[in-house]
Specification:
With 133 residues, the chain is an all-alpha fold. Helices cover 66% and strands 0% of the residues. The protein has a single domain (3-123), classed as Orthogonal Bundle (Globin-like), CATH 1.10.490.
Length: 133
């Protein structure tokens, strides 16, 4: 997948008004997500992303201590400079695009590193497909 398509899908799913907002949502979410992962998983995850998005994933040095999903969303909100409900929706959109375009084994490996409560981030709310509203 090309970077423009990746960002475009995020913009559409998160209902963002600009590509710049979608880039910011991707940066905030992927940076925060990769803080929870081992470097080898970051590399696996990044290998399936377009070049620009992979750079976001590699910004983190890896394992920053597991935090709750609520703390994850709070950190995304802080980085993205948006309110918490927007950060939740944007994170789910970013992860939804990521999951839809990743190899299922890579997603399974990624989920294995995260606390069980993070499954909600990867599956979205009931009735949603990977967080898309």
């Amino acid at each position: 997948m090309r970077r423009n398509e990746f960002i475009g899908q995020i913009q559409y799913r998160a209902r963002l008004s600009s590509r710049e907002d979608a880039v910011e949502a991707a940066r905030a979410t992927l940076t925060t997500l990769t803080e929870l992962l081992l470097m080898r998983e970051i590399d696996r995850l990044a290998s399936g992303m377009p070049t620009g998005a992979a750079a976001f994933a590699r910004l983190s040095g890896g394992v920053d201590g597991l935090r709750s999903l609520d703390e994850f969303f709070a950190r995304v909100a802080e980085r993205e400079r948006v309110e918490l409900p927007q950060a939740v929706a944007h994170s789910r959109a970013v992860v939804g695009v990521l999951v839809d375009n990743a190899h299922p084994d890579d997603v399974e490996e990624l989920l294995a590193q995260l606390p069980d409560e993070y499954l909600a981030l990867f599956t979205g709310a009931p009735g949603e497909k990977n967080g898309a509203a």
